[in-house]
Design goal:
Blueprint (H helix, E strand, L loop, with lengths): L10 H51 L3 H49 L15 H8 L6 H7 L1 H23 L4 H32 L30 H51 L3 H49 L15 H8 L6 H7 L1 H23 L4 H6 L1
Helix pairs in contact: 1-2, 1-7, 2-3, 2-5, 2-6, 4-8, 5-6, 5-8, 7-8, 8-9, 8-11
Length: 413
């Protein structure tokens, strides 16, 4: 049973226990995100290898019966791996809600011990829905963009595409015409997308409902242990060692979150570039086999839109990550401000900023931050945007060519 954290145990000892548990949750969250991106990388590697293998077989068999046999052997295996990956990613998102809820409870305990530190925290300290949104950072409420950019959606769309291709190949193998096979593939893809989105919503909703808040903002929200934190100044009756340990633990928490954010950026960009590379190699092989005939156009219009969707989702995720990073750096600057209120004489030793305004952010990001053109040109988001634009241009050109436009007009488009 929860007890008043101010009873019986020295504050320094309580903070040490809380900080140790905080570190435990941070390490678990890092493992969870590592599992997410490792599984996604494994799946995308399998899919990329399958696409290249299909292109080689198409070149060797000229899309004959053996091509269909090989595809119906390889693609179900890739789909099975994809479904397993999708389920693991949904589980990981539920685990992440639980871990953040636990860290918010610990922050609540910190601020019961040292209420005057609350202005220096950018993260939430309540374990209700709003508290989780505060800890996830700005933009969390825009669930449509978050859903579109999530790794689980990316994997789900690829799973649906694989299922659609398998459905179309089966229809073709039993004697259906090309148009009917394409229709079957499109219907199967749409149905699988709808089923996976519904499963995502149901599983995530059930996971959130299982998190019973103990320290919500209101008793009406189901909180039976909410305690009012008395107003206090940073220098009121709390030993400086205790305040510094709380601030340092929160600082490390923000650093860990920033590490996860940057890991997400580079993992997603790596996944996207792997897919694009596999698509380009496959198109080259199919072009050689078909001499840029109708089979090449059909294959390209199947592969490239999937690569473009992955690219757009990656671009959105990278932009969100940059916004998250501004927020995290702002939070760390607030904590540095608290350090320097406790020990003003340390200011000459800091190269980073200690104000949470624009100038403070520039100081923390380091020299050269204000040269925005070069930063923008060199950013990962610009790289992904250029590749996305190229893919979109190629797709439009192929559609124009398939519709009867000449080669020159297709290239112009």
């Amino acid at each position: 049973m929860p007890t008043d954290p101010h009873l019986d145990v020295p504050e320094a000892l309580r903070v040490q226990i809380l900080a140790t548990e905080h570190w435990s949750l941070l390490a678990t969250r890092n493992i969870t995100y590592g599992a997410i991106y490792s599984r996604a990388n494994i799946f995308l590697t399998v899919v990329s290898a399958a696409v290249v293998a299909l292109a080689l077989v198409a070149q060797a068999t000229e899309f004959g019966d053996r091509f269909y046999l090989f595809a119906l052997l390889v693609l179900p295996v890739a789909l099975l791996i994809g479904v397993g990956t999708y389920i693991r990613l949904i589980d990981a998102r539920t685990e992440d809600f639980w871990l953040l809820s636990g860290m918010n409870r610990l922050r609540h305990a910190y601020l019961e011990i040292a209420p005057g530190l609350e202005p220096y925290f950018v993260t939430g300290h309540h374990d209700d829905e709003r508290g989780l949104s505060e800890t996830y950072g700005p933009g969390t409420e825009n669930r449509l963009l978050r859903l579109l950019a999530s790794t689980s959606t990316l994997v789900g769309v690829i799973d649906a595409t694989l299922a659609g291709v398998i459905g179309g190949l089966v229809a073709k193998a039993v004697g259906a015409g090309s148009e009917l096979s394409l229709l079957v593939g499109g219907v199967v893809t749409a149905v699988i997308v709808a089923l996976l989105v519904d499963a995502d919503r149901r599983i995530i909703g059930r996971g959130r409902r299982l998190l019973e808040p103990r320290f919500a903002r209101s008793a009406k929200a189901g909180c039976t242990h909410e305690q009012q934190m008395p107003a206090s100044s940073p220098s009121a009756d709390v030993p400086q060692t205790v305040r510094v340990q709380i601030l340092a633990t929160e600082h490390w928490s923000l650093l860990a979150a920033r590490d996860i954010t940057y890991g997400a950026i580079f993992s997603r960009a790596s996944i996207f570039l792997t897919v694009v590379s596999a698509a380009v190699v496959s198109l080259a092989l199919v072009a050689r086999a078909t001499e840029f005939g109708d089979g090449f156009s059909a294959f390209a219009l199947l592969v490239l839109p999937v690569a473009l969707f992955i690219g757009v989702a990656t671009y959105i995720r990278i932009i969100e990550a940059r916004i998250d990073d501004f927020w995290l750096v702002s939070g760390m600057n607030r904590l540095r401000h608290a350090y320097l209120e406790i020990a003003p004489g340390l200011e000459p030793y800091f190269v980073t900023g200690h104000h949470d305004d624009r100038q403070g952010l520039y100081e923390t990001y380091g020299p050269g931050t204000e040269i925005r053109f070069y930063r923008l040109l060199a950013s990962t988001s610009t790289l992904v945007a250029v590749i996305d634009s190229t893919l979109a241009g190629v797709i439009v050109g192929l559609v124009a060519n398939a519709a009867g436009a000449g080669s020159e007009l297709s290239l112009f488009i």
